[in-house]
Design a protein that fits this description.
With about 110 residues, this protein is an alpha+beta fold. It is built from 4 helices and 3 strands; from the N terminus they run βααββαα.
Length: about 110
C-alpha cells in the first residue's frame, strides 16, 4: 500500500519538526519557501521510502471572492476547529510514528 503525505508551506515551528521527515533531501527552509499552490509529497510503501517529489495544485480562476472566502472560513471553524491541546494530543502518536520511521531508516 502506498502512503502519500502532501506538505504545503508550513509555519516555521512545523517546518522545523517536518525537516527530520524530509532529511536529507529537503530542509525546513525548503519547506517554508514553497511557492503558493505547490506542495512536497512524502511517499512510502511501509517497507521503503520514496524520495520526496513536488507537485502543483490548481490556482483559483478569476478574482477571489473575499466575502465567500470569509463565510467558508467561518463554517470551517465551526465544523473542524478544536482546542489546541486536544489536537496536539491527537497528533502526538503520529509524530512518534514518524520519528520511529525516520530512526528506522537511518
Amino acid at each position: 500500500m502506498l502512503h502519500i503525505h502532501p506538505i504545503f508551506p508550513p509555519p516555521v515551528e512545523d517546518a522545523n519538526k517536518l525537516e527530520e521527515v524530509f532529511e536529507p533531501s529537503l530542509s525546513a527552509r525548503d519547506l517554508m519557501e514553497l511557492p503558493n499552490w505547490e506542495a512536497y509529497m512524502k511517499m512510502h510503501t511501509g517497507k521503503e521510502t520514496i524520495l520526496p517529489s513536488n507537485t502543483r495544485t490548481i490556482k483559483p480562476k478569476g478574482p477571489i471572492n473575499k466575502e465567500k472566502m470569509q463565510k467558508l472560513q467561518e463554517r470551517s471553524r465551526l465544523y473542524y476547529c478544536r482546542p489546541a491541546v486536544e489536537v496536539d494530543n491527537d497528533i502526538k502518536p503520529r509524530w512518534n510514528w514518524i520519528r520511529e520511521m525516520v530512526e528506522h531508516e537511518a
